[in-house]
Automatic annotation (TrEMBL):
The lineage of its organism: Eukaryota, Fungi, Dikarya, Ascomycota, Pezizomycotina. It comes from the Eukaryota. This is endo-polygalacturonase. The keyword Cell wall biogenesis/degradation applies. It comes from Coleophoma cylindrospora. GO terms for molecular function: polygalacturonase activity. It catalyses: (1,4-alpha-D-galacturonosyl)n+m + H2O = (1,4-alpha-D-galacturonosyl)n + (1,4-alpha-D-galacturonosyl)m. Its main location: secreted.
Length: 385
């Protein structure tokens, strides 16, 4: 063989080896005989994986990644971080995770212009009952977080996922810019039995901007939404049941303590501890500004219809508000509905002048007690306890 023939043969062998050594992905081959460079890039191929390790190993060489019926081994992350720009990830069948006491996450994805979705009939089953002990992330067995949507950039989306029984918090959105989470269903209602499911927040958002969470359907035992920091964040068309409501906070005492440009709209909160909630940390600094809650319907609220308090410390209220995290430019528009008779309709605990420029219109929460402990309510703008 000539040198040319030899290197051609070598290239053939390498190509064959590459395919043979990775049986899991069903690779739609490029139409012409590929040179090695195009094998590396694999610019327009779809890969189907039935094994978590194989999916993680080959993730950057597939334009579309189908995760089909994967059982993820205990103590490991189904790792879709660092994807090639523009990658699509599709869950198919039942994705499930084996038990181990660890902090997770069970799934993680990052990259630019990433589209995550689910095929008809798919389910992401977190098998939460194996971890649930009523203590959530405050004690008991260490429980894995479920879904990290961290460092997603460009114009990324997570759409139409069916999530069942997360061990503890479900979606963590952090360091993301330009991300839409649409039509995500989270059903942790099995955790209501014996009050075993705990701290099963649906969407926790931190240090992110340009985030839209639309048409979520959540049954859980903690916040439906919790924004700890971030700007330009929209939550709309949500249905929240069983949890702690639509929350901002607690704000303060973290590395990022700015919350601004928040639009929470056209949603319902039923059978939950709170409806609308903003809490800031006692003695901390930060800011909560330009926040709008509009068209929120409440029913079956057991603690507070609307609660805004500047006195949080170590996870519970002190009763004494501090002024380091002012809450300004807060609009509440059309917040209506009922709370249970033992609950409080509206509770506002602000420090001296640390709540200002509030506009409340069409706020009507009834059925519970009127608070006698409110303080610092802005004098103009219609807010009242
Ligand atoms: C990838 O393949 C699909 C289906 O054959 C085709 O519609 C699409 O245009 C291709 N995209 C690129 C970037 O080649
Ligand atoms: C308030 O937030 C919205 C996004 O919800 C943004 O479009 C608007 O520019 C912000 N206004 C100010 C004065 O920052």
């Amino acid at each position: 063989m000539s040198l040319l023939q030899k290197s051609f043969a070598l290239a053939l062998v390498s190509a064959a080896t590459f395919v043979a050594a990775t049986p899991m992905p069903v690779v739609t081959p490029a139409p012409v005989f590929p040179d090695l460079a195009s094998i590396e890039k694999r610019a327009n191929s779809s890969c189907t994986f039935t094994d978590a390790a194989a999916a993680s190993a080959s993730k950057t060489s597939c334009a579309t990644i189908v995760l089909s019926g994967i059982t993820v081994p205990s103590g490991t992350t189904l790792d879709m971080t660092g994807l090639t720009d523009g990658t699509a990830v599709i869950f198919e069948g039942t994705t499930t995770w084996e038990y181990e006491a660890w902090s997770g996450p069970l799934f993680s994805v990052s990259g630019k212009d990433i589209a995550v979705s689910g095929a008809t009939g798919h389910v992401l089953d977190g098998n939460g009952a194996k971890w649930w002990d009523g203590k959530g992330s405050n004690g008991g067995v260490t429980k894995p977080k479920f879904f990290y949507a961290h460092s997603l950039t460009g114009s990324s989306s997570i759409k139409g996922l069916n999530v069942l029984n997360t061990p503890v918090q479900a979606f963590s959105v952090n360091s993301a810019t330009g991300l839409t989470l649409d039509s995500i269903t989270i059903d942790n209602s099995a955790g209501d039995t014996g009050s075993l499911g705990h701290n099963t927040d649906a969407f926790d958002v931190g240090s992110s901007s340009g985030i839209t969470i639309s048409n979520a359907n959540v049954k859980n035992q903690d916040d439906c939404l919790a924004i700890n920091s971030g700007t330009d964040i929209t939550f709309t068309g949500g249905t929240c049941s069983g949890g702690h409501g639509l929350s901002i906070g607690s704000v303060g005492g973290r590395s990022d303590n700015t919350v601004s440009g928040i639009n929470i709209a056209s949603s319902s909160v039923t059978a939950s501890a709170n409806g609308v909630r903003i809490k800031t940390v006692s003695g901390a600094t930060g800011t909560v500004s330009n926040v709008t809650y509009s068209d929120i319907k409440l029913s079956g609220i057991t603690s507070y219809g609307i609660v805004i308090q500047q006195d949080y410390k170590n996870g519970s209220p002190t009763g004494t508000p501090t002024t380091g995290v002012p809450i300004t430019d807060l609009t509440l528009s059309s917040i209506t509905g009922t709370v249970s008779s033992s609950a409080t309709n509206v509770y506002i605990l602000c420090g001296s002048s640390s709540c200002s420029s509030w506009t409340w219109t069409g706020v009507s929460v009834t059925g519970g007690k009127a608070s006698t402990a409110c303080s610092g309510i802005p004098s103009a703008g219609g807010a009242a306890c």
